[in-house]
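task queued by scheduler; priority normal; single chain, no ligands, no partner chains; default sampling; output format set to structure tokens
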Amino acid sequence: MIRKATLQDLDQLTPLFDQYLIFYKKPSNLEKHKAFLKERIENNEAIIFMAFDDEIKDKAIGFTLIYPTFSSVLLSKILILNDLFVDSTIRKKGIGEQLILKTVELAKELNLNLIRLRTAKNNVVAQGLYHKMRFVRDEHLYTYDLTVNK
């Protein structure tokens, strides 16, 4: 089952989010990560969908964190599928695909025609899923980051 996360889900969402950040070589920090997620939900700055195990009703097994934003080039609102994670013990069972389909459903409900994401170059498993789901890799634009006030 997949549904939108609420503040009541933070205790189950936070460990998954922590695992996700560890995958991207960030330090584990449950307290900090919970505060970040809480703020996103409270301020309506993100939409988080959570996947739950069908056999163990209330066990969270995955999530996607989506940021609504705008594209000047497209002159429209878009969704950034910023984070997608499925517990490593239950991968390869279609949970990631279900989370993406829920994101597509959201885009359709909001009458948006673009979902954008990015992933690590070495995350070939995720890239395979994105290609399967008909995402098209941008071959024309580069992503640049500038760290400020560190």
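post-processing summary
- The helical segments are 10-23, 30-42, 95-109, 124-132.
- Residues 95-109 form the longest helix (15 residues).
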